[in-house]
Request: fold
Amino acid sequence: MVYCSKCGEKIPDDAYFCPKCGTKTDKGKTAKAAYPTDELRDAFYKVGIELERAFNIAAHETHSAIQRARENMQQKSAQREGIVCPNCKTKNPYGSIFCHSCGTRIAPTEESHGSA
Ligand SMILES: [Zn+2]
Ligand SMILES: [Zn+2]
Reply:
């Protein structure tokens, strides 16, 4: 075992860099070690995973944003076009609960508020 000249961390004899602070060890200096490419590759690999995850999240959020916008537009066009009665095909104003022509219920049943 050797000790880091900077932070005093115990370092394996064959280490070129202090695992704690990154300072080059005597061995690293004498070996004229290049930058720890394995660590770099590892770091890039991790960054790649993070990027991919970020992209996935972004894609997912973009997708749901588009979905929301689409639903919004559908709702707006429904407001503009009104509700077509499934029974007699009469167009009723948006917000109608019953068809003004045949009396069929055209609003979603969730309108009912129980005992009110
Ligand atoms: Zn150190
Ligand atoms: Zn009708």
